[in-house]
Specification:
Layout (H helix, E strand, L loop, with lengths): L7 H19 L21 H27 L10 H11 L7 H17 L13 E7 L8 E5 L8 H21 L27
Antiparallel strand pairs: 1-2
Helix pairs in contact: 1-2, 1-5, 2-3, 2-4, 2-5, 3-4
Length: about 210
C-alpha cells in the first residue's frame, strides 16, 4: 500500500483508542449514575486517583501508537521510543505542514495523570519548578474554547465525570483528525520498507 493511504495498522490503532475512550468515559463512571453534566465524581474508593491516572496514561499511549501508525502510512520516520505524545504529534504536524494547537493540553494531561497516579492527586509542584499552580488537562467549565483549569500546589485534583467526558472527546477529535490528515498535506517522503521487497522511495503527494 503506497504512502498516503489509511492502513490496517492505522485503523486498528484508531479503533483501540476509541475503545479506550469508551472505557474511560463509561466504565470508570460507575457506580455514579447521574447526568454527565453534573460535577459528580467519576468513581469512588481508595484507589480512585490511581485508577483514573492509569486510564489517562493508557489513552495517551493509544494516541502515541496511532501517531506512529499515521507516520508509517505517510512514509514519515517512526519513533516508537518517543513516549512524549505532545512532541510526537508536533513533529508529525510539522512534517505535514499541519496546524497543531493541542500540545499544551497534552502536556497538561501528562502532568495531571502523573499527579493522579504517583501522588494520589495531591499537587506537589506547579507547571514550572517555582510555580504555585498546576494546569490540568481539562477546562474549569464545559466548552470547547474554555481555558484549562488550574489547581494550587498542596491541593487535590478532583476529576469529575464531566472532566473525563471532555478528555475523551479531546482524544477522539485528535484521532479523527489524524485519520483525515493522511494524504491531504505535503510531506517529506522517506524510503518505505514493505514485506514484499526492499525499501523504495515514493514521490511526494500534493493535492490542490
Amino acid at each position: 500500500m503506497p504512502p498516503g493511504a489509511v492502513t490496517d495498522e492505522m485503523q486498528h490503532a484508531a479503533a483501540t483508542l476509541f475503545r479506550g475512550a469508551d472505557f474511560l468515559g463509561g466504565c470508570l463512571r460507575a457506580p455514579v449514575a447521574h447526568d454527565t453534566e453534573t460535577r459528580s465524581l467519576a468513581i469512588a474508593g481508595r484507589y480512585r486517583a490511581k485508577v483514573i491516572g492509569n486510564g489517562l496514561r493508557e489513552l495517551d499511549r493509544f494516541l502515541n501508537l496511532l501517531i506512529d501508525a499515521a507516520s508509517s502510512a505517510e512514509g514519515l520516520p517512526v519513533r516508537p521510543g518517543q513516549h512524549n505524545t505532545a512532541n510526537k504529534l508536533s513533529t508529525y504536524c510539522a512534517a505535514k505542514s499541519l496546524p497543531n494547537h493541542d500540545g499544551d493540553r497534552l502536556r497538561a494531561l501528562g502532568r495531571s495523570r502523573d499527579c493522579l497516579f504517583h501522588c494520589g492527586g495531591r499537587v506537589g509542584r506547579g507547571d514550572r519548578r517555582d510555580g504555585i499552580a498546576m494546569t490540568v488537562g481539562w477546562p474549569a467549565r464545559t466548552g470547547c474554547n474554555a481555558p484549562l483549569d488550574r489547581v494550587m500546589v498542596g491541593q487535590d485534583v478532583n476529576v469529575t465525570r464531566g472532566d473525563l467526558d471532555d478528555v475523551c472527546l479531546f482524544y477522539r477529535r485528535i484521532a479523527r483528525e489524524l485519520c483525515a490528515s493522511v494524504g491531504l498535506a505535503p510531506a517529506e517522503r522517506v524510503p518505505v520498507a514493505t514485506k514484499k521487497g526492499p525499501a523504495r522511495a515514493e514521490p511526494s503527494i500534493v493535492r490542490s
